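Postdoc handover notes: sequence design on the structure in folder B. Input tokens:
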């Protein structure tokens, strides 16, 4: 490998890892794209890099301006990292209640952190609207990344993540599944893979409390319940998600992702974040439904240290009505 001259040269080209225990149980190869190996620790480094670099090229973002974004965590970390490397300032607007680990990471990268109440999207004080409003009121000082509608997000995964997966599998891939926060990863990868082979099955996985599963299945947004996951699942159609090429959708309850997370930790030494665990749970379910001999790829968005205070906190899980003992992956 060549030497990198700054952190941004380390974004992307992440390994593909076969999860041995789940592959053995299903008779199919289940792979995760190790996005936790990006310099900021998550898949969102890709979108942050593309959005900021494209904005600089267009002239929308100029030296001396501040990048601002509303985010549940990982995009904020990516924005803070990329801004620091580019010599820009960053402001991250986050809803209260996210894991303390993510909040600390944003601050450690030197971004200004604005915490707001966790309110429904229709509320003008929602983190999305707060970031947009600050940028609109100070257009000479702030550039709003707008990750949900900014198609540089989709572009990052269509031009890099998807091709990487195709190359790493040598074109031998039967299915791809992942969750959607903005839809950028899902859309970019699914679109690219479908263009290579239309027979590849592509699917969304959604947590309880999100409406995307209902939208894919019925064309209407509807949701029920809630989830311990953060930063994934939405109740509106955004520009990045519109680009997705999907065959199916799964909805997976928290108990299933908790059990999967504990299983791969104990059997494979793989400590997944909550969205990563949801993705792997979907890949496991997909493998069982498709039958033996398939090759399925999903995204390991980040590692478990960013979910430690929730996903790996037995006391917290118990308060959410989730079992931490006495349940096996074979019970799913």
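Designed sequence:
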């Amino acid at each position: 490998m060549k030497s990198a001259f700054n952190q941004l040269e380390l974004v992307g080209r992440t390994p593909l890892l076969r999860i041995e225990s789940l592959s053995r149980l299903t008779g199919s190869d289940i792979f995760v794209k190790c996005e936790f190996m990006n310099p900021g620790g998550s898949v969102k480094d890709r979108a942050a890099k593309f959005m900021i670099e494209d904005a600089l090229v267009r002239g929308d973002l100029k030296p001396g301006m501040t990048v601002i974004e509303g985010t549940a965590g990982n995009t904020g970390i990516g924005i803070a990292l990329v801004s620091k490397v580019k010599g820009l300032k960053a402001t991250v607007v986050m809803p209260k209640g996210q894991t303390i680990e993510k909040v600390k990471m944003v601050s450690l990268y030197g971004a200004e952190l604005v915490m707001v109440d966790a309110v429904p999207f229709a509320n003008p004080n929602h983190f999305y609207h707060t970031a947009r409003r600050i940028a609109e009121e100070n257009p000479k000082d702030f550039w709003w990344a707008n990750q949900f509608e900014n198609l540089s997000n989709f572009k990052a995964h269509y031009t890099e993540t998807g091709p990487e997966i195709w190359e790493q599998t040598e074109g031998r891939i039967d299915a791809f599944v992942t969750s959607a926060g903005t839809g950028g990863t899902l859309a970019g990868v699914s679109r690219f893979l479908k263009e290579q082979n239309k027979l590849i099955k592509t699917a969304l996985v959604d947590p309880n409390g999100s409406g995307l599963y209902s939208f894919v299945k019925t064309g209407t947004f509807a949701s029920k319940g809630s989830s311990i996951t953060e930063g994934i699942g939405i109740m509106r159609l955004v520009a990045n998600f519109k680009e997705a090429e999907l065959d199916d959708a799964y909805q997976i309850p928290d108990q299933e992702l908790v059990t999967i997370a504990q299983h791969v930790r104990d059997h494979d030494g793989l400590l997944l974040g909550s969205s990563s665990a949801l993705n792997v749970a979907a890949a496991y379910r997909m493998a069982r439904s498709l039958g033996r001999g398939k090759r399925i790829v999903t995204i390991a968005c980040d590692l478990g240290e960013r979910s430690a205070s929730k996903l790996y906190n037995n006391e917290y899980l118990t308060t959410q009505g989730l079992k931490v003992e006495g349940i096996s992956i074979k019970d799913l």
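Context for whoever picks this up: The chain has a mean pLDDT of 96. Don't rerun without checking with the PI first.
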